[in-house]
Design a protein that fits this description.
single chain; about 300 residues; alpha/beta; two-stranded antiparallel sheet; 10 helices
Length: about 300
């Protein structure tokens, strides 16, 4: 039986959700035995030699890979006789996101291995503002079509590259300054102890061990990568995230409820064509065209 591994970092859970979807499809449709390797500051370096297929997955942070992902990738040795793919995700379909994988590609070139495909999935924001359930279902449906395409191209050895150019890469490098924001902004984090129930979830789940507890008080150090896991998952919405607090989103998206609800149709864009949401039309159209090319009138 073929073996696959998905190496991923997930801040608030979206990329974990995506990795699980990928794993389920690989196991079911191509009969890969698939392992998940979730990255935090203490994750051990995995030996890639036993695997036939290696997938890197991450949330796009300011048009870049998360720094914790880069640090882990730096330790990896990449065997040249494997298939490599990037399946990343973000909350919007801007072309700037295409350049976010440049560090992974540089690593692949160093080991003289080929990247067989790169795919950009959409999942709801964990900062800025909360997506409506209708739109969450719509982008989930988009992701299922993109997964269909990925599985088809993997089966048929069809390579896929996302379009980029040197100017987009330069923009990506510029936005890397965001990495300085986490350690600085972390000093402005505060706990509202009138809400806090002292569950310790923020402390135990922080991927960089940035949160400590002293004298029954939670303190934030300078290792924050702004993944938003602590504030997003706080059961009492008790964490103020400093200079970004106006953009705070709290509470998990209930994907299972949204996906399985007959009341939620997933037709949000039909009624929201102004401003921000217009950027999704091109991506959806492109995926629909490729999906139709592969599957329309083929009984699949």
């Amino acid at each position: 039986m073929l073996k696959a591994v998905i190496i991923y970092f997930s801040g608030t859970g979206n990329t974990h959700f995506l990795a699980t979807l990928i794993k389920d499809r690989l196991n079911k449709e191509i009969l890969y035995e698939t392992d998940l390797v979730s990255i935090d500051s203490e994750t051990e370096v995995v030996d890639l030699n036993p695997y036939d297929l290696i997938i890197f997955s991450y949330p796009i942070y300011a048009f870049n890979t998360p720094i914790i992902f880069d640090k882990y990738l730096k330790k990896l040795k990449l065997p040249s006789d494997k298939k490599y793919y990037i399946l990343k995700q973000s909350g919007e379909s801007l072309s700037l996101n295409n350049s976010s994988s440049y560090y992974i590609k540089r690593k692949l070139r160093k080991f003289k291995v080929k990247l067989s495909g790169e795919y950009h999935f959409l999942l709801p924001y964990n900062i800025h503002f909360r997506y409506e359930d209708e739109f969450v279902k719509e982008i989930y449906n988009y992701d299922q079509k993109l997964l269909d395409i990925f599985i088809y191209e993997l089966k048929n050895n069809i390579d896929r590259k996302l379009k980029s150019n040197p100017f987009i890469y330069l923009d990506s490098l510029f936005f890397k300054i965001q990495r300085l924001g986490g350690p600085v902004n972390s000093y402005f984090y505060k706990i509202d102890y009138s809400k806090c129930i002292n569950c310790g979830l923020c402390l135990s789940s922080c991927p960089t061990k940035n949160i400590i507890k002293e004298n029954d008080k939670y303190k934030f150090k300078n290792k924050c990568i702004m993944c938003m896991r602590c504030s997003f998952n706080c059961p009492k919405d008790a964490i103020n995230i400093g200079m970004l607090n106006g953009w705070r989103v709290n509470g998990k998206y209930d994907f299972n409820r949204i996906i399985n609800s007959n009341e939620i149709k997933g037709e949000y864009l039909k009624y929201h064509q102004k401003g921000f949401y217009k950027i999704f039309n091109k991506a959806f159209k492109n995926i629909n065209e490729i999906h139709d090319k592969y599957f329309k009138n083929k009984g699949e």
